[in-house]
Design a protein that fits this description.
Helix content: 55-70%
Radius of gyration: 28 Å
Number of domains: 2
Number of strands: 2
Order of helices and strands: HEEHHHHHHHHHHHHH
Largest sheet: 2 strands, antiparallel
Strand order of the largest sheet: 1-2
Strand content: under 5%
């Protein structure tokens, strides 16, 4: 006896395959084409991103050198790093560089954006000229350029100091130029100067944020008797505070990964000179990984850096709830 379906009853659709491929014919065809076109990215992500992340987590728990099988040792690499003076020195150097370069980059970028937000002749040319150096920020060419500019013997900066305020300069104050990259006390300020070479990128971000501030807020502040400086701190800064937070977080993440300039200026051989004063965290990681071939120890360093950056980001986001202003809609939702 044939079983007849009830009138108006709809046949049940087949379940989707692992929730990735729908059961319907048209939907299945569209999904298959979707996975076909996205497959290069998926394969690249699995092979070059996810697998290295998981592998480094495993290798950080092993003694692993290239050409040998990894030997599981648990948290020995982390314990060894905790007692490594050069490791703590690299953290100190990187933290010092971050504390100098990130706030200065924000201040210079914001002040330049305010200047370039005014109505002056040839404004487009000025904006382009100030942004162009940002295209080479962190490159080998910039590192070589500053190694020449900051050379204590024949560098242009020390030559200018000698001609202006040196013992026989235009204003004889007896000031001599420092040894810059060869002096333990001046090496991090030198790298900070190098990082400020590319604050044009930050300037461009702030410039777009400044142009999004409603003009009626300035008009209301002016009616209340607020001057330019008062408007800047009470209107401009609060309105662009989310952008400042963004540049601050990305600046800290970038500064914690400083590597190229320190490697190039030291010639790739005398890493950390002088006296480990330029031993950045990533430079020490590179030294352990590709000079000493201690891949397990270097993997542990990479995960420690990830945890540090993650905690710093959480701390900045938590503090931003008090200091960052987000414009709300009529219902009060952000």
């Amino acid at each position: 006896m044939a079983v007849q379906s009830l009138p108006g009853a709809r046949p049940k659709k087949k379940a989707a395959l692992f929730g990735l491929i729908p059961a319907g014919k048209i939907e299945r065809r569209e999904a298959l084409w979707f996975w076909f076109f996205i497959s290069p990215w998926v394969i690249g992500f699995l092979a070059f991103t996810l697998y290295p992340i998981l592998a480094s987590a495993y290798y950080s728990m092993t003694v692993y050198t290239l050409g040998k099988e990894p030997v599981w040792t648990g948290f020995d690499n982390y314990i060894q790093l905790a007692g490594d003076r050069v490791f703590w020195k690299s953290l100190q150097v990187t933290s010092y560089y971050t504390l100098l370069s990130v706030p200065l980059g924000i201040v210079f970028g914001l002040l330049l954006a305010v200047l370039l937000n005014q109505r002056v002749p040839f404004l487009g040319i000025f904006r382009t000229l100030y942004y162009l150096p940002a295209l080479l920020t962190g490159s080998v060419a910039v590192a070589l350029l500053f190694s020449w500019l900051l050379n204590p013997q024949f560098g242009i900066i020390n030559l200018a100091i000698a001609n202006l305020v040196g013992p026989e300069g235009l204003i004889p104050l007896g000031i001599k130029g420092p040894r810059w990259l060869q002096d333990q006390n001046w090496v991090i300020p030198s790298f900070t100067m190098m990082s400020l070479w590319g604050f044009g990128a930050t300037m461009l971000i702030y410039l777009s944020a400044l142009q999004g501030v409603p003009t009626h807020l300035y008009e209301a502040a002016e009616i209340d008797g607020a001057g330019r400086i008062s408007q800047f701190f009470n209107v401009t800064i609060p309105m662009i505070s989310p952008v400042i937070l963004f540049t601050f977080i990305t600046g800290v993440i970038g500064a914690m990964q400083q590597f190229t300039a320190a490697y190039v200026i030291n010639g790739g051989t005398n890493l950390g000179a002088p006296a480990y004063a330029s031993m950045f965290y990533n430079l020490y990681l590179f030294l352990n990984a590709f000079r000493r071939y201690r891949m397990g120890l270097a993997s542990a360093q990479a995960w420690i850096l990830l945890v540090i950056v993650f905690l710093l980001t959480l701390a900045m986001l938590w503090a931003s709830r008090r200091y960052v202003y987000y414009e709300a809609d009529e219902e009060g939702a952000i």
